[in-house]
Design brief:
Layout: H1 3-6, H2 9-14, H3 18-59, H4 65-74, H5 76-97, H6 104-127, H7 130-159, H8 167-223
Helix pairs in contact: 3-5, 3-7, 3-8, 4-5, 5-6, 5-8, 6-8, 7-8
Subcellular location: Cell inner membrane; Cell membrane
Transmembrane segments: 12-39, 131-153, 173-195
Membrane topology: Multi-pass membrane protein
């Protein structure tokens, strides 16, 4: 076996201590889970943004709100989060407007509460599993560093019985230990980048949802006059 073969990644992992191998296995599992949620959340947020744009275009085209509500109620899964917020608000508005003992302010407040509750559920759904990406991004480097420290300790312990240590004796042990840090960073960097991007996109969607709630509340209020 040549020196290059001794320092190949697979060879280093195969000759690493059991603890380092377990750390590497954990980091690989975390990395795979991170990429799974990166793709899942990326597609979900992209779909939510596209459906939000489509619903805003339809809403501001000036169509009949009652007809729009019936269309949304018939296809709740396909209209996206903003459509479901609209549906909740209009449904509550129509129900309360049929009660003669309520003031206009009570009707609008009820519609706003219904929209706010749906808004929070939609936001929670968009944010689901992003905390995992944040945890993976923050913890993975430290897990890798633990593997590196343990590997270096194991390497120097093995050299304790050797009278004189040469670079060729030290290098493989140090290299296999540093693999843990490298894989820890490999697991952390995509998770951190994806989390920051998703947080930004979700925040922008949340702002659009909040603006719509205020504008829709004003429209409903004008219908009561």
């Amino acid at each position: 076996m040549t020196g290059n073969d001794d320092l190949s990644i697979l060879s280093l992992i195969a000759h690493a201590s059991v603890v380092v191998q377990l750390v590497l296995l954990l980091l690989v599992v975390v990395s795979l889970a991170s990429w799974y949620w990166i793709f899942r959340k990326g597609l979900a947020i992209r779909a939510a943004r596209a459906r939000t744009i489509d619903f805003e275009r339809e809403f501001w085209s000036g169509g009949d709100l009652g007809a729009m509500y019936r269309n949304v109620a018939a296809d709740r899964d396909g209209v996206g989060p903003l459509g479901r917020i609209f549906e909740a608000g209009y449904r509550e508005f129509a129900k309360l407007r049929g009660q003669n003992n309520l003031d206009a302010s009570d009707i609008i407040d009820g519609a706003r509460r219904a929209m706010r509750a749906t808004y929070q559920r939609e936001l929670d759904d968009l944010e689901a599993h992003t905390a995992f990406l944040a945890s993976a991004g923050s913890v993975s480097p430290y897990v890798g560093l633990f593997g590196t420290v343990w590997g270096i300790m194991h390497a120097f312990k093995g050299l304790g019985d050797v009278g004189s240590a040469t670079l060729s004796q030290v290098a493989p042990g140090i290299a296999e230990a540093l693999v843990a840090t490298a894989i820890g960073l490999f697991a952390a960097i995509p998770a951190v980048v994806a989390y920051n991007r998703f947080a930004y996109d979700i925040d922008r969607l949340a702002t659009r949802f909040e603006s719509f709630q205020e504008e829709f509340s004003n429209i409903l209020q004008r219908q009561l006059k």
